[in-house]
Amino acid sequence: MRGIYYFAVMTLYSLFRRRTVWGVAILTALALAGIASIPAYGLSGGGRFTVDTGLTSIEIGSLVLAIALASGIFPRDRETRIAFPILAAPLSRTQYLLGRYMGTALVQTGFIAVWGAGLVAIIALKGYPMPSDMAGALLLLGVEGCFLLAVVFFFSFWTSPPLNAPLTILLFILSQMSVRDFTGLMPGAEGLMRILRLLLPHMDSFHIKDPVAHGFDVSPVYILLAALYGLAYTAFMLSLARSVLLSRDLR
Q1: Separation CA 149–CA 114 (nearest Å)
Q2: Coil, strand, or helix at residue 244?
Q3: Hey, how many other C-beta atoms are within 10 angstroms of the C-beta on 250?
Q4: What is the DSSP letter of 17?
């Protein structure tokens, strides 16, 4: 466990030196600043617009950040041959995966927390009523971010970074589609499409921005169950990533 911790810290430090990470973080912050600069002109829906658009910006930023953080870690370690001495003795492949994942997850959740604090500050400064379930919405976005990281790690062990991004984005889009929309992609194979939709993660479970933006209360039980669902699916994706990594020939 200590080896995983030290490797996660090493991953954390190395990620903060990458310009791509800071670029995504700054662009998302600028998007939130842009939302803050939009005048309300006394419209009653200004608060709903700010909350909805702000949470959407954080979600998209989380998706892009997950790809920027994790898609190139293993390919870079393999190309620079850093993975060989690490996996030769100090760490097993499972510890390597968990260390890398924990380091990136800390960065991911840290930036989501900062973006969320910025959105809360914007709502307060503009004098809008603060949604009662804002903390729950940000929590689920953080869980979704951790899940997306696990997906990116899974793809990174058997594909290249240029292919990792479109695969992750495709899964992101498909996993948010309703059953009706998903089966509509292939109307002639409705039964098969329903089975596929059942197997795909239901990332729409993490999205409560609409009821939050409109002032509706979301049950704490639902937020807890959605968070547990996301963490369980994250663990599942990490187990798949581990299986792929264990089967890889690193030579």
Answers
A1: 18
A2: helix
A3: 13
A4: T
